[in-house]
Amino acid sequence: YKNGNNGLLIVFYQVICCFYNGLYVQCGYNINIDGIFGIDTEDAVKDYQSKNNLQIDGIAGKNTFSKLLS
């Protein structure tokens, strides 16, 4: 998923990002859970990828999802 996508799976991804490390916002990313993959969600994806030695492309693909769910 990338900037411009929307839908239920984007909501799922946004919720996971907000609860990253188990704490809402304080340790996660402060993004709106609106189902729209916008610039804030893309920035959160890039930051997460950077911190987890993933390719930094801003796309919530297979490797990024796998790492988030591990």
Task: Note down, in words, how this protein is organized.
This protein has helices at 8-18, 39-51, 62-69. It has 70 residues and is mainly α. It starts with 7 loop residues before the first helix and ends with a helix. It contains three helices and no strands.
Average pLDDT score: 82
Which term fits the overall shape?
globular
Tell me the number of strands.
0
* Major sheet characteristics: none
Count the DSSP helices: 3
How large is the share of residues in beta strands?
under 5%
- Secondary-structure element order, as H and E? HHH
Structural class: mainly alpha
Q: How many whole angstroms does the radius of gyration measure? A: 11 Å
Low-confidence stretches: 22-27
State the helicity in percent bands: 40-55%
Q: What is the first-to-last residue Cα distance?
A: 19 Å
